[in-house]
Structure formats: C-alpha cells, structure tokens
Design brief:
Layout: E1 11-15, E2 30-37, H1 44-52, E3 60-65, H2 72-78, E4 82-85, H3 92-104, E5 112-117, H4 127-130, H5 136-146
Parallel strand pairs: 2-3, 2-5, 3-4
Antiparallel strand pairs: 1-5
Length: 147
C-alpha cells in the first residue's frame, strides 16, 4: 500500500513500485493523475481540460472528492474523470490521497506512475516536456529500464 504523509507541492510525481512485476520494462508507463478536491466545482473543469489537452494525456484522471458539499464530483465526471469519494476523512488532503491510493492502487505494476495535481490548478499543454527541462515520463521510463 502506498501512502503520503504530506503533500507540499501543487504538482508532485509519485512512483508506485511493484516488486512482483514480471517484465514491467517491456510495457510503456501508465500515467494516472490524482486530483484531490474539496468543493472545487468552480475550478475542476479547467483543471481537467488542461490535463486532457496534454501532448501526452494521462491514461486516467481520478478526482478525489473529499467531503464535498457542492457538485465537484458531478462536474468531474462530466469532464471525463473517474471520481473517488472519501469516507470519514479527517486527515485533510493527505488523508484523502491516502484513501485513494490504498483503494485504487492496491495492485500496481512497475509501469504505473501517478501525478498529483491540485484541483484549482491548470498546466500548460506541454507540461510533460517543460517540467524540469526534460520529458518527465521519459525520465521515469529510463530509470525504470535500469532497475
């Protein structure tokens, strides 16, 4: 089970290793974006649009609806995201992410990469290429091939 103790950055990459993967290098990386959201119905559509507009869009976007009292989850579904709704979370953003990671990522293999992005943020269409001056997923793929 993967966990996060703190979330400091608006956007962070978390590698989810699987020691039992048979040949993860032979397959391309799968990018899933987790978007923790608490009453973000006013901003979540723009966030999702910026993710789907990437040159290399994610395979899956999961909006983590944390104790929402508005229609964040409905807006997220209309925007093409899967929605994970927290249950009894009192651990704020990190608690919400821990619930989603534990439930949605109990079984991963070595090609799974997760990006965490705030629900009130957008990224430029070439974020993957602009982040750190290198292709982020290629960086993970290269490291993945060496391990």
């Amino acid at each position: 089970m993967a966990t996060l103790e703190t979330v400091r950055d608006t956007t962070a990459l978390v590698r989810l290793p699987d020691p039992d993967a048979t040949d993860p290098v032979a397959k391309p990386l799968r990018l899933t974006v987790l978007v923790p959201a608490h009453d973000e119905s006013a901003t979540i559509a723009a966030t999702l649009e910026s993710l789907w507009a990437q040159e290399r869009p994610p395979e899956r976007v999961v909006v983590v609806a944390d104790n929402c009292t508005d229609d964040t989850a409905d807006v997220a579904r209309r925007g093409g995201a899967d929605v994970f709704t927290t249950v009894g979370n009192s651990g704020k953003k990190a608690g919400a992410l821990n619930q989603a990671l534990a439930e949605r990522f109990a079984h991963v293999d070595g090609r799974d990469v997760v990006m965490i992005m705030d629900a009130d943020s957008v990224i430029v269409p070439r974020f993957e290429l602009a982040s750190g001056g290198r292709n982020t997923l290629s960086f993970f793929q290269d490291r993945h091939a060496r391990t």
